[in-house]
Here is the input.
Amino acid sequence: MRFFLDHHHYALARSLLTTLCGRLGHEVWFPDIPFVKSAVPPTVWNVVHPIWFDEVMVDPAHVSWAPHGVVSEEEFFDLDWDFLVASRSESQEPILRLKRKHPRGDRIRLLAVSGNAGTVYDRERFEHLVSTDEGSARLKPNDLHVICVPQEIGWAYSSTSFAPMRPEALRRVASYVHNLAGWHGDWNYDAFGGGCPHCGTSLPGADRDHVRPELTVVETWRKLRSLLPRHELLAFGGENEVLGGRLLHEKEIPSIIDSTALTVHWKSSEGFGHSLLQSVRRGRLVVVPERFYRYKMANRYLIPDVTCLEVPWDARAVARAVEGFTRDLDVANERSLRCREVADVLFDPEYDTRRLGRWLDEIVKGTKT
Here is the structure.
């Protein structure tokens, strides 16, 4: 099969390329830079530079994968396509325009992908959905053809054996949420109808529309600095203070995770979740807010006290969990090794790929149910 993909979120594009091309053996192509500029308004699609595949994909095996890369607009209309893929709501109209303009567009199928919760598509035209978040799959209309599969988090995270933390790592705690200082209103009760889906806890009345400051991502992180004076709290990622606030290169992240004791992922909404999963895959437990991941894709990999520390919605509770975990190096390494061993079982991209492959075959053969 031959797939044409838009590109907005790097992690999702990397995941789709790895799964569709690297594992299933299909051709995968992105628009080249002039094509992006002519097809969509600024920021709807991000550009893919040719060096992206060698410098970012990380997996050295990609040189032997099925054909993949970028195509020009002229090449797009010359080639036959099995699927045009929209990976965000804003891509629907550009993808539909390309299908209508293609000389053999009536043969091309449309495929939608949800990378974040709440991604909405016109199901009359995009009748096939690959949902990488549980919310979109769970709330789908009954007549939508959907499969729920997790995103691949990248080759590098399982490519080496477990790395025990060194003594200096025991006091290092990391966050990988981009623009941490900007997350003032992230405590998302409304995503669950105004209250926690597990216990029903809610903020009364109009207060629900104004998140309590002490519960926000940034305020919790700031309080941790004063509550954990003996620890080094490192905020990696875009617009954060570590490494000049630059985006981390995919090849750097495994060693950075290995150089820390824990990851704090204090977000109630989905987004930047790859860092949470990458930490677990490397054998570093993740501190997460209590109950909020029970109904999200991340719940497949979060086992309290095994792969994560699930704590109440309070900075002091986070600090107590960090202090308890980092008290003894040998015990912390024992728990981290257990996390890695369990992750080796929980992460099974080969199985998920087989499911997706059968699902795509059903569409092409006209046997979908």
Summary: Residues 204-211 have pLDDT under 50 and may be disordered. The first helix runs from residue 10 to 23. The radius of gyration is 21 Å. DSSP finds twelve helices and twelve strands in the chain.
